[in-house]
Design goal:
By secondary structure, this protein is an alpha+beta fold. It contains nine helices and 20 strands. Among the domains are: 148 residues, Probable tRNA modification gtpase trme, domain 1 (Gyrase A, domain 2, 2-Layer Sandwich); 86 residues, Aminomethyltransferase beta-barrel domains (Elongation Factor Tu (Ef-tu), domain 3, Beta Barrel), CATH 2.40.30. The strands form four sheets. A six-stranded mixed β-sheet has the order 11-12-13-10-4-14, with helices on both faces. Helix 2 packs across helix 8 and helix 3 packs across helix 4. The longest helix has 12 residues. The radius of gyration is 21 Å and the shape is globular.
């Protein structure tokens, strides 16, 4: 299927079909929703390991002697401060401070042409991010932007046994040691079952784990090797449903739910990613898109706050449900919600007014006309033992 068709297929599509996956349309891609039981896949990631196809994500390469400076001006983070081999969670914002997308940016080893960065965007926003970066880089001859999303496959191994599985598949002993030694939000190139891969210790589940970027045509070989090596250790293939419940337990935002163009990073409790102290080569404050509105937002009282909600009954809150007080006054809206397989009760994230955002506050969610009790609790709901 060509990149121009309405629904795209992952390079691993045939693998998913062979495994009996239930497929769904997600951001214009046909992706596995589940292979069997959502709860079983979720639990495997928490107790052993899960294998995810993330090939729908976007990979944008930003290279050249001015790459770091160009990204510093385009994004809210300080990317020139990122050491080669490290990664950073950041955002690209509109001029008014609203979030266009949340990103992971990897700085790879510099080469003769200058710095090399890999910008990973959400599947639904690749075109938006690509267009925004192109516009923000316009007129510069010291930076190049290349979209390699359709040339690249991305698979993730997440869970307590992820290191054992991934390291065991690295061809060279010294490279295996380098993968084992990776810090969180770091990456290293390595040959994995004969495939040149960028191996990153990142993820979206709240567990330890790795994401492997490989050429699209070689993804099936890698997928089968990971399954073969991991299955005896409890690894299972996991779909989008388990990925969503895992990230919710870990309190990680999802674009379109917790983040959108009407939301600033500060609204989502992520003001730390906005680096207002960035400076240029002369030491002057560095202008970046959205800087003034974000500075004003950082200095002002919030109109709403993102909180965690613990369900005190069996019915789970869902995206869009109203949050209410005991008197029935609407004080917020649920952004994400589901039963928590790990914790055994429903959990949700919601934007609420500041006066009801304190930990321990009892509220309710209107679940199809019934007010189900909830309590404000800290995020994340789940934190792995380290």
């Amino acid at each position: 299927m060509s990149e121009h068709e309405a629904t795209r297929r992952s390079p691993l599509h045939d693998e998913h079909v062979a495994l009996g996956a239930a497929l769904t349309d997600f951001a214009g891609w046909q992706m596995p929703l589940r292979y069997g039981s959502d709860v079983a896949e979720h639990t495997a990631v928490r107790t052993a390991a899960g294998l995810f196809d993330l090939s729908h994500m976007g990979e944008l390469w930003v290279t050249g002697p001015g790459a770091g400076d160009a990204l510093d001006r385009a994004l809210v983070g300080n990317l020139t401060a990122l050491a080669p081999g490290r990664a950073r969670y950041t955002m690209i914002c509109a001029p008014d401070g609203g979030v266009l997308d949340d990103l992971v940016v990897y700085r790879l080893a510099d080469d003769d042409a200058g710095a090399r960065y890999l910008v990973v965007a959400n599947a639904s926003n690749v075109a938006v991010v690509r267009a925004a970066l192109a516009e923000r880089f316009a007129g510069r001859d010291d930076v190049t932007l290349a979209d390699r999303s359709f040339e690249t496959a991305l698979v993730a191994v997440q869970g307590p046994r992820a290191e054992e599985i991934v390291v065991g598949l690295v061809d060279d002993a010294s490279e295996a040691d380098a993968v084992r030694a990776l810090k969180y939000y770091a990456s290293v190139p390595a040959r994995v079952v004969g495939i040149d891969a960028l191996v990153a210790r990142t993820g979206y589940t709240g567990e330890d784990g790795f994401e492997l970027f490989v050429p699209a045509e070689q993804a099936p070989t890698l997928w089968r090797a990971i399954l073969a090596a991991g299955t005896p250790l409890g690894l299972v293939p996991a779909g989008l449903s388990a990925r969503d419940s895992l990230r919710l337990e870990a309190g990680m935002p999802l674009y379109g739910n917790e983040l959108d163009t009407t939301t600033t990073p500060h609204d989502a409790g992520l003001g730390r990613v906005v680096k207002l102290d960035k400076v240029d080569a002369e030491g002057a404050p560095l202008p970046f898109v959205g800087r003034e509105p974000l500075a004003a937002r950082a200095a002002s009282a919030p109109a709403r706050t993102l909180v965690g909600l613990q369900g005190l009954s069996r019915r789970a809150a869902r995206h869009g449900y109203p949050v209410v007080t005991g008197s029935g006054a609407v004080v917020g809206t649920v952004t994400s919600g589901a039963p928590s397989p790990t914790l055994g009760h429903p959990v949700a994230m919601a934007y609420v007014t500041p006066e009801v955002s304190a930990e321990g506050t009892d509220l309710a969610v209107d679940v199809r006309g019934r007010h189900e009790p909830v309590r404000v609790v800290p995020l994340p709901f789940y934190r792995r033992e380290r």
